[in-house]
Design brief:
alpha+beta; Dna Ligase, domain 1; D-amino Acid Aminotransferase, Chain A, domain 1; Rossmann fold; 3 domains; four-stranded parallel sheet; about 290 residues; globular; single chain
């Protein structure tokens, strides 16, 4: 019998993180895998001792990249790989990878590194960004989930306030896709195959995330949407991915972002498809 750990972050108080882990645990147990839920701090990263009671594999639902790397270095298969988690956790780094693979996405400019106690406000750089992307535009911090730390910038005053506030932070400037305001598609991919998809929309927010008040329905993807979502997951190396697609001109899809630890409760509620079962089945096929 295989054994696995499902790891989530123990410092986060929202029930959604434990719920995600429990969905994976239940799926693994249905497949005959002996499974333990573990908070990230319950695995001590002591570099002077061997890891005891090691599992056959780990489903890693956190962004504790150091722990994921520690487990990988111990010879344990980790899903997703920590390099993938790290790439997807930093949107600036993610967009570099997507761009390298020619993935269609909104025009994106990665902000230069500016140290917190310094500024490039009078260099003319920000004026170039405004001229290139226009207003409104999107500013996204490198690290953020559930639509958080994504800002719709509508005036020059907001623009300069936000760039000043984000000194010392990785972030990107992105062209605002007005045709996709308040609507997007979430596509869950496992091992290069689409498992489930839902259309999300909001009447009150430029973001469609359910966490921010959006609602979701089942959607039948076009061939172009399917192809782009799979290509995006492949571009960042993700075996498990939640790919968010926007609606560009003439409804042509654009990649908004790729999530390496996408939550699966909402898509389960909407579609009736439990992505966790597909994730566990994929791992067992890969390990066999």
């Amino acid at each position: 019998m295989h054994s696995c750990w499902v790891i989530y972050n123990g410092s986060l108080t929202s029930d959604k993180f434990k719920d995600q882990a429990e969905l994976l645990k239940e799926a693994a147990e249905r497949a005959g895998v002996r499974t333990e839920l573990k908070k990230n701090y319950e695995v001590m990263m002591n570099l002077d001792t061997n890891l005891e009671n090691r599992p056959d594999f780990v489903v890693f639902l956190d962004k504790d990249i150091l722990l994921a790397t520690f487990l990988k270095n111990a010879g344990i298969p980790v899903f997703n790989d920590p390099d993938v988690i790290e790439t997807c956790d930093n949107k600036a780094k993610q967009y570099l990878e997507l761009s390298k693979q020619g993935i269609q996405m909104p025009e994106t400019i990665i902000a230069p590194k500016v140290y917190p106690n310094f500024t490039i406000k009078d260099s003319g750089y920000y004026e170039q960004v405004l001229e290139r992307l226009g207003l409104p535009m999107i500013i996204k911090e490198g690290h953020g989930s559930f639509g958080m730390k994504v800002y719709l910038i509508e005036t020059e005053e907001q623009f300069f306030e936000k760039t000043d506030e984000l000194r010392g932070v990785d972030y990107v400037f992105q062209k605002f896709i007005a045709t996709s305001r308040g609507r997007d598609i979430r596509v869950n991919i496992v091992g290069g195959e689409i498992v489930a998809a839902m259309y999300r929309h909001s009447e009150t927010d430029f973001r469609a995330n359910i966490t921010n008040g959006g609602v979701a329905t089942v959607i039948e993807l076009t061939e172009r949407q399917k192809m782009l979502a799979i290509q995006a997951a492949h571009a960042v190396g993700a075996e498990f991915a939640g790919v968010d697609l926007l609606f560009g001109a003439n409804e042509e899809p654009l990649v908004c972002e790729v999530n390496a630890a996408a939550h699966i409760r909402n898509i389960y509620n909407v579609t009736g498809i439990n992505v966790a079962d597909a994730m566990i089945a994929y791992i067992l096929r890969k390990l066999s």
